[in-house]
UniProtKB/TrEMBL annotation:
<dbReference type="InterPro" id="IPR046825">
    <property type="entry name" value="PDH_C"/>
</dbReference>
<dbReference type="InterPro" id="IPR046826">
    <property type="entry name" value="PDH_N"/>
</dbReference>
<feature type="domain" description="Prephenate/arogenate dehydrogenase">
    <location>
        <begin position="7"/>
        <end position="288"/>
    </location>
</feature>
<dbReference type="InterPro" id="IPR003099">
    <property type="entry name" value="Prephen_DH"/>
</dbReference>
<dbReference type="Pfam" id="PF02153">
    <property type="entry name" value="PDH_N"/>
</dbReference>
<dbReference type="InterPro" id="IPR036291">
    <property type="entry name" value="NAD(P)-bd_dom_sf"/>
</dbReference>
<keyword id="KW-0560">Oxidoreductase</keyword>
<dbReference type="Pfam" id="PF20463">
    <property type="entry name" value="PDH_C"/>
</dbReference>
<dbReference type="InterPro" id="IPR050812">
    <property type="entry name" value="Preph/Arog_dehydrog"/>
</dbReference>
<dbReference type="InterPro" id="IPR008927">
    <property type="entry name" value="6-PGluconate_DH-like_C_sf"/>
</dbReference>
<protein>
    <submittedName>
        <fullName>Prephenate dehydrogenase/arogenate dehydrogenase family protein</fullName>
    </submittedName>
</protein>
């Protein structure tokens, strides 16, 4: 059996996802048994932040880029377009054999850029975020039983480093699925990006009636708390798929509006029955 190839991990971006990954990986059986070292950097951190992230498990906060990227695995955990720009730093400072991954919410653009630069790159998207941001909202169990999408070429996914990365993530009890970057971006436009924009649009549409709204409305609009600074990058790198989903959904709303107006209760009943079954299926999956 080949020795475990990942002994040093660099995490660039120590917000919600980066800091949660730090905690989860640090406490994983693999990292503990092999004494994997964790170094990281976040340009927004001051001295107090550095002290707190060290308490969460970071072995070294490293501002020197040459030292930061001297790692077996580099995890880019900044916003999408920042991660894409950071690939140029990786090329300049990291050893050629370093495996690079990211946790961006879109995959095609960053995968294309990594290929242009000749990097050993695997796209990674844990579907385990929150409307809250920053390391103060991070938690070790964030990824447990959550989907983790892996996007990689066959030549990369078959390497020892890639297998070791998958072993690390499986030790966090993620539900791993492998797909192409294009398929990823198309799917998340439906199950992630569309719900965000619907939540944002709904609360804006109903804003004048918030004083009389109940808990159901608050639940449905929870995603409206998400910051534009995150979603700007997502929309700019997945606009085609998101626009297609919005147009498809708007057609569904038009059909529903016609059924309501015409009193087509049987058609609406069928929607409710189908939705009840789908929600039951979803609830079983997310509660296991």
């Amino acid at each position: 059996m080949a020795p475990f190839s990942i002994q040093r991990i660099a995490i660039v971006g120590l917000g919600l996802i980066g800091a949660s990954l730090l905690q989860a990986l640090k406490q994983s059986p693999i990292a503990r048994s092999r004494a994997i070292r964790f170094q990281g950097y976040d340009p927004a951190f001051d001295r107090d932040d550095i002290g707190r992230i060290t308490q969460l498990g970071l072995d070294r906060f490293e501002e020197d880029q040459h030292k930061l990227y001297q790692a077996d695995l580099v995890i880019l955990a900044a916003p999408v377009t920042t991660n894409i720009a950071l690939l140029d730093d990786v090329v300049q400072w990291a050893p050629p054999e370093t495996l690079v991954t990211d946790v961006s919410s879109t995959k095609q653009t960053i995968a294309d850029r990594a290929a242009e630069l000749g990097l050993n790159f695997i796209g990674m998207h844990p579907l385990a975020g929150s409307e809250q941001q920053g390391y103060s909202a991070s938690r070790e169990e964030l990824f447990e039983n959550k989907p983790l999408i892996i996007c990689a070429e066959n030549r990369t996914i078959s390497t020892q480093a890639a297998r070791d990365l998958l072993d690390l993530m499986e030790s966090l009890r993620c539900a791993i699925t492998v797909m192409s970057p294009e398929e990823h971006d198309r799917i998340v436009a439906s199950i992630s990006h569309l719900p965000q924009l619907l939540s944002t649009t709904l609360i804006n549409h109903c804003g004048r009636n918030l004083d009389t709204s109940g808990p159901g409305f608050a639940t449905l609009t929870r995603l409206a708390a998400s910051p534009w600074s995150i979603w700007r990058d997502i929309i700019s790198t997945n606009g085609t798929h998101i626009a297609a989903e919005l147009r498809s959904f708007s057609r569904e709303l038009e059909i529903l509006a016609d059924d309501v107006e015409q009193g087509s209760l049987q058609s609406i009943d069928e929607r409710f029955r189908r939705a009840n079954k789908l929600y039951s299926t979803l609830n079983r999956r997310t509660s296991t």
